[in-house]
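hiii, so i know i said id send this last week but things got crazy w the move. better late than never?? heres the sequnce for the chain we talked about at the cafe, plus the structure i predicted for it. fair warning i was half asleep when i ran it
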Amino acid sequence: MNKQILFIAFSLITFCSLGQNKFTIEEVIDRARAQSPASKRTETTKETKYWQYRTFRAGYNPQLAISGNAPSYNQNFAQVIQPDGTRLFQPINQTNSFANLGLLQPIRWTGGMISANTNFNFFNDISRTQSSWNGNILNIRLDQPVYSYNPYKWDRRTEPLRYEESKREFVEQLEAISQNAADLFFQVIRAQIDEQIATFNLANNDTIFKIEQGRYNIGTTSQDKLLQVELQLLRSRQDVAQAKINIQNSSLLLRIYLGLKDDESFELTLPENLPSFTMNLEEALTYARKNRAAYIAFERRRIEADREVARARGGRLNNATVSASYGLNNVGLVINDLYRNPQQQQQFNLSFSIPVFNWGRNKASMNTAFANKKLNDFIIAQDEINTDQEIITQVRQFDLLRLQIEITKKSDEVARERYNVAQNRYLIGKIDITNLNIALREKDDAKRSYVEALRSFWTSYFNLRRLTLFDFTSGTLLYNPEK
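okay and structure toks below
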């Protein structure tokens, strides 16, 4: 009979374990980085930044474009002034077609544009049965702004930095996902521990209540102590109910963050084996300054401030542009006539708009740009200090966190042993229920403190990885600039 009971119990345990997954903190983090909605958003952002950089690079390449209009048809009356000054309205019935093939190339060093074009224009007067062709066999044109802001020059300095910054931000975001997953992991662990504590306390208080009832019946305890134990039992039942709600809520948050299915249950394992590594402050600062996106952003922001000064300086001479073109064109009744003895076509134009007196507008614009650059330098300097300080604080915390784990772990062991002693003394009547409850509360608080110390260590560990982009456990870089 006993063997049958053991077999049934073993079968039930095995069945339950098949439907529930046990996850370590490493497995939870791997799932979060691979399949969570946050990781997918991060991956999409990385892809968007890549194509933005490709768009910037493509802007410097030549562009071949064809433009024109399909045959446009026009039938109406046109006003024609006669030699004697009178006006005569003549009927017109015409079609007109135009096509242009152009090759455009921006000049990154000067901000100009050079283009090569060939175009054809066909005119047909339907009423008079007349048609003609007009076209530029070849036309080379240069448009060059004079003493103006060159966006190509500044984009070449900022956009590669922005792209490099985005690649490092991607790795930092993955580490932030690891940190968030670890925090949610410990929320579930804390809820599991609270449920275990509440269940244990309920069973323990139920036993104590029965003992106190027996003592009350034989007159060895007072009604006040019996009621105190009964009240403690009722609170234990309430704690169990609340603990079940908390574990459901925290598990749901973790499940949503990991992208798990609603019917996929899991149980978490307390990560008591800590990663072993040594580090010093200067080493952490060196890795951070070399790898983090923030330090790339500091350089980019300085260049952008210089760019705004250049934009203000270039805006003092409005719309000054030199345009020159050279080509061959011709007219004819058929398209082949355009290639017979084409004529030269030359054009040069200098257009400008110079403000003679604008009541200090240019001076104010320049001074504003210089003031913004000065302010930007101050802000960046402060941001660099804050970033370094964040790393310094995190590094200095680690020794304290390890010490805190050792202390809270030892406290947990001592509190459990003390409670066992207090429980035995209570059973033999050496201490009252008040002292037993104090020992119970200290045992529970010690366990929660130990779990909280582990949570602080693990979240700080992944935060340090995010701040330095360096894995101190394996001694490897989390970001490789060459890839």
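btw The CA atoms of residues 54 and 277 lie 40 Å apart. thought thatd interest u
miss u guys!!
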